[in-house]
Amino acid sequence: xxxxxxxxxxxxxxxxxxxxxxxxxxxxxxxxxxxxxxxxxxxxxxxxxxxxxxxxxxxxxxxxxxxxxxxxxxxxxxxxxxxxxxxxxxxxxxxxxxxxxxxxxxxxxxxxxxxxxxxxxxxxxxxxxxxxxxxxxxxxxxxxxxxxxxxxxxxxxxxxxxxxxxxxxxxxxxxxxxxxxxxxxxxxxxxxxxxxxxxxxxxxxxxxxxxxxxxxxxxxxxxxxxxxxxxxxxxxxxxxxxxxxxxxxxxxxxxxxxxxxxxxxxxxxxxxxxxxxxxxxxxxxxxxxxxxxxxxxxxxxxxxxxxxxxxxxxxx
Length: 316
Fold this sequence. Notes:
single chain, Structural Genomics Hypothetical 15.5 Kd Protein In mrcA-pckA Intergenic Region, Chain A, Pseudouridine synthase, 9-stranded mixed β-sheet, 6 helices, 18% helix
């Protein structure tokens, strides 16, 4: 990880890393100090002391090894199984469930639940010790469809298909604002990069200092309401937070998204997460065509019904 320090007033490199890089983990300041001393943190390609005071435009490189996290099966994790055969499983992940363990969340994850129900995936994947069989991911608060490999051959085939963009993914999102007729269908073609503090993704610009990645999203309007729209979204690329960043960039952030929320949009009290759902997934493999759907969850359905009931009785 590379970060360009941009503050005018300098601060200690150890304090900066704890505040800006490891703010969402259980990495202690003592561990950060130890890693600085061991040379896992460089400033302008050189080792420094933990007390080093950063200067504007200093280049900070961080290569601190992650803590070893032992994945443990958890039979209490609930998720819907849409389909299963000898090669893969298709599931409907509920919102609020983290996909794989981290220093912030160890046992209450989809990976732990999958391992409990399908122990044969224990050694499947590129990092089976923390994400067995998992080919792709969804954000914790995004619900919907995922495919999980049951053997290494299937994992490699599906991973390659994702890389080549041969797996079609379709999402539904409820966004703020009533998109006009001219916006009933569109393509958002805006490259994405990490923000300078690495806390989120941003639309890349001329002054962007982090790595810029191509990002393209197609969308069409399913239904319009007075102050909201139900949108079908198909990402052509698979960047982190891509849909959320792109919809926000055209002035229609997803309802409930606390990270990517344009100014002037109020919170909706009853909504506790971004209303984004991975609804469909299709691909060809093993000489067959596969297509799967995951029904939208109760919170999205209830919100849509509450909008529909105001002057429009048609249900989605």
